[in-house]
Design brief:
Number of helices: 3
Mean pLDDT: 81
Structural class: little secondary structure
CATH class of the largest domain: Mainly Beta
Low-confidence stretches: 1-38
Length: about 210
């Protein structure tokens, strides 16, 4: 018996949704995709840094173009010294950036989904019009950083230094904003734009 086209289409949609949800649930059932880097990734053990790879510390845009940070190999920028380097317009989702130095880097219109960057330095970096989604920045430094008109969703800035940063016109969900406003370093004024840090994030007065 031939099924109606509408029934077949519905079944295909259900199968696709199931496959996608299964992929997104992999970290919660102990299976680590090769290049998945968000807050949950701290429970995983990464391989040692391959310091013999001469071109390791370079920005490269994901060919897959997915917000789920899928790559065909580990994108390892851990401990890289990449000050004043440009990743403008790049999709660097899934990058491991822990303890790297990306000060004054250009991340304009870049996508950073599920990047894992605890202890990294982004001082005076520019994330204008960028998308920072489900990123893990615990203990990172963002002194004087620009987040103008950026999308910040589901990202962790716990214990991060946000002194003199500028969040003017950034999109931050209410839940994320409540957590961000509790950061005691959300103070000062950005040297480039003159914007007061706390007010630019929409946090109002002092903590």
């Amino acid at each position: 018996m031939k099924l109606p086209a509408s029934t077949v289409a519905a079944a295909q949609r259900s199968a696709a949704a199931f496959a996608l949800s299964s992929l997104l649930l992999l970290p919660t059932i102990g299976m680590a995709p090769p290049a998945l880097a968000d807050g949950d990734t701290k429970a995983f053990k990464f391989p040692p840094i391959d310091r013999t790879k001469k071109d390791r510390c370079l920005f490269s845009s994901s060919a897959m173009g997915q917000a789920n940070a899928a790559r065909d190999s580990l994108y390892d920028l851990r401990e890289c010294q990449m000050t004043s380097v440009s990743a403008e317009g790049f999709d660097i989702s899934g990058a491991l950036m822990a303890n790297g130095d990306f000060s004054k880097a250009n991340f304009k219109e870049a996508q950073l989904s599920k990047v894992y960057a605890p202890g990294a330095k982004f001082d005076e970096a520019d994330f204008t019009n960028g998308i920072i989604d489900r990123a893990f920045f615990k203990g990172s430094s963002f002194r004087g950083t620009l987040f103008n008109n950026a999308v910040l969703s589901g990202s962790s800035f716990d214990e991060a230094d946000l002194t003199n940063s500028d969040f003017t016109d950034a999109y931050i969900g209410q839940f994320d904003l409540r957590k961000l406003c509790k950061n005691p370093t959300l103070q000062g004024e950005n040297a480039k734009t003159g914007a007061p840090t706390r007010e630019s994030a929409g946090c109002g007065g002092s903590l």
